[in-house]
Amino acid sequence: MNDQGRQQRVVVTRPEGQQQRLMGLLVEAGYQPLHQPALVIEPITVDDTMQRTLMELDGYHAVFFASVNAARLALSAMADLWPQWPVGVHWLAVGRATAAELESWHLPATVPQQGFNTEAVLALPCLQQLVEKQILICRGDSGRELLAQTLQSRGARVDALAFYRRKAASPVLIPAETDWVMITSVQGWQAIGGSVPPCCGVVAAGERVADVVRAEHSGDVSVAASAHDEDMLSALVAVATKD
Questions:
Q1: Contact between 203 and 184 (Cβ < 8 Å)
Q2: Where is the Tetrapyrrole biosynthesis uroporphyrinogen III synthase domain (predicted)?
């Protein structure tokens, strides 16, 4: 590896259609990005039960979107039922990219100022006093239960709707000469980790993902502040500069 990471091969594992911006940033920084999705996003059909819940949006204190995929799919379903968005609802996003999706639907997004994870969301002022309040979580069919459990412990009634499922991509092809692989979720690592060359470095989105990677991988692990494109790139540049 050279001092500035020039010509290093970096595999981006975001799902198809969500990799372009990060790959562009890598090219600008002098890296050679390759795209190998770890997961495939499969939308879940909105059934009658889900529709009944969505028709009661105006009764919720807050609606939380756990990812860009959750926001895109959930808001599309909501828009079919709500020509005008209900007022008095807190629209919560896990991070900046998810907030941008909400804003594209003309919704005022509330997002943590830093952290961009469940713990940061739980620290939002609107989620502190929740006795007898209703919260809707829009998410995928798997993920952490910490948010729902903590909100319930604060007195909220929590409903969760899954709008997509994540499946391991196949086939997975990571060239042996790859220098770094970017991993943004535990499930992504579980899907692709067995194909990562032992000497390859991993940029992991946050300590929780990094801990899982370290337990199974002998190569270097660099921890990004979050899964955002800029944070993933910064973590890569920081470790490459040290080499």
A1: no
A2: 22-233
Sorted by where each starts, the structural domains of the chain and their CATH numbers stand as 9-38+170-241 (3.40.50.10090), 42-166 (3.40.50.10090)
Assign 181 a pLDDT band (cuts: 50, 70, 90).
very high
Angle, CA of 191, 217 and 220, to the nearest 5°: 120
* Spacing of C-alpha 170 from chain mean position: 21
Tell me the Ramachandran region of residue 114: left when phi exceeds 0, alpha when psi lies from -120 to 50, beta otherwise.
beta
Euclidean distance between CA atoms 63 and 14, whole angstroms: 25
